[in-house]
Automatic annotation (TrEMBL):
InterPro entries, per database record: GH, Glyco_hydro_5
Domain of life: Bacteria
Protein's name according to its UniProt entry: Glycoside hydrolase family 5 protein
Keywords of this entry: Glycosidase, Hydrolase
């Protein structure tokens, strides 16, 4: 961000990188809303997939979906990647709208979060539903008569009650990638009451606000500008964008590097509209997803240049993705046969932001 910052204090230890300064002595916390950058280092990390898998919802555990393993946590801790975005599905955790959280599924989720805490790893619980969920066998959009906003508010009220005292929750990932909302104000009108509900239960944990149109960083000023008017009594909102480098920005990488029309600055060019928006509105940003294929080394400088730009602007993020169920997925950084994936050549160089060098 193009602004000189005065750094009063930089933590001497950044190993734990927690949000809860009152509970963990070596902790750091995200910047509060209204500041341009944090005076504390913020961690980079990865998504750990598996709990969001499966088209059969709710599905059968270990067949349709499963949570990542503690060995996955151990591996990424060894790489100093201490922030994990953990995707899961609303339907599995709360089978009936406005009903209780399923105790078996909740234990799977909290057991993983607690295993991460034991390893000093921070977690973003990410509701990976794209502003939709299954209701009576049909996929419905939040805010519709069949899936009212109040049901989503109820869900997050119950989740916040579970998470509020856990020290290693970096931020609440309220919803992954809303898209094709009925009107330009639909997502704003959904997320505002969720923020208000969470704050009646938890005033400390930051809240991640995903942008519309699949959280596109490139399209953010056009499709998500009104989110700057959201209010948080705790002033701890963090705006979450996603970015991919293929021609459609969808992250499918259907063609070759040349066919995708990529170059070394593609990532920087696509993230810049979001960064400029953050700067203009004095908001805090985060990149929840970015990833590259493992089969062409020309993608590595694209990733490296974008991460360098993010770090220069005090924006951290989580790579998409890792987890034991990916198989041969080209973007995955899950090690194969004990061997690091090519993307780790770049990712290992980005552990945390450095406020002393931020613009």
């Amino acid at each position: 961000m193009n602004k000189v910052i005065s750094v009063l204090l930089i933590a001497a230890m950044i190993g734990i990188l927690s949000c809860r300064k009152d509970k963990v002595n070596t902790a750091v916390k995200p910047v509060e809303e209204g500041e341009i950058v944090s005076i504390e280092p913020q961690p980079f990390g990865t998504n750990l997939s598996g709990a969001e898998f499966g088209s059969n919802v709710p599905g059968q555990y270990r067949q349709d979906y499963s949570y990542p393993l503690v060995t996955d946590l151990d591996y990424f801790k060894s790489k100093n990647m201490r922030l994990v975005r953990l995707p899961f599905l609303w339907e599995r955790l709360q089978p009936a709208l406005n009903g209780p959280l399923d105790p078996v599924e909740l234990k799977r989720l909290t057991d993983f979060i607690d295993a991460a805490a034991a390893r000093d790893i921070l977690i973003i619980p990410d509701v990976h539903n794209f502003a939709r969920r299954m209701v009576n066998g049909n996929k419905e959009i939040i805010g519709s008569p069949t899936l009212p906003t109040a049901a989503f508010v109820d869900f997050w009220g119950k989740l916040a009650g579970v998470f509020k005292d856990r020290e290693n929750i970096w931020a609440y990932g309220v919803m992954n990638e809303p898209f094709n909302m009925p009107s330009p104000t639909s997502w704003f009108n959904i997320i505002q009451p969720v923020i208000e509900k969470i704050r009646t239960i938890d005033t400390e944990t930051p809240i991640l606000v995903a942008g519309d149109s699949y959280s596109s960083a490139e399209r953010w000023p056009r499709v998500s500008d009104n989110l700057k008017n959201l209010t948080d009594p705790s002033q701890k909102l963090i705006y979450e964008a996603h970015i991919y480098f293929d021609d459609t920005s969808a992250g499918t990488y259907d063609g070759s590097y040349d066919e995708e029309k990529a170059n070394a600055q593609t990532g920087v060019n696509r993230i810049k509209p979001f960064v400029d928006w953050l700067t203009a509105n004095k908001k805090r940003g985060f990149i929840g997803e970015y990833g590259i294929p493992d089969d062409d080394s020309r993608w590595l400088p694209v990733l490296d240049n974008m991460l360098k730009y993010m770090k220069a602007n005090c924006i951290n993020g989580t790579y998409w993705s890792a987890g034991p169920r990916w198989g041969s997925y080209r973007l995955a950084i899950q090690p194969r046969g004990g061997v690091d994936r090519p993307q780790m050549q770049v990712l290992k160089n980005y552990i945390s932001t450095d406020p002393q060098s931020c613009r």
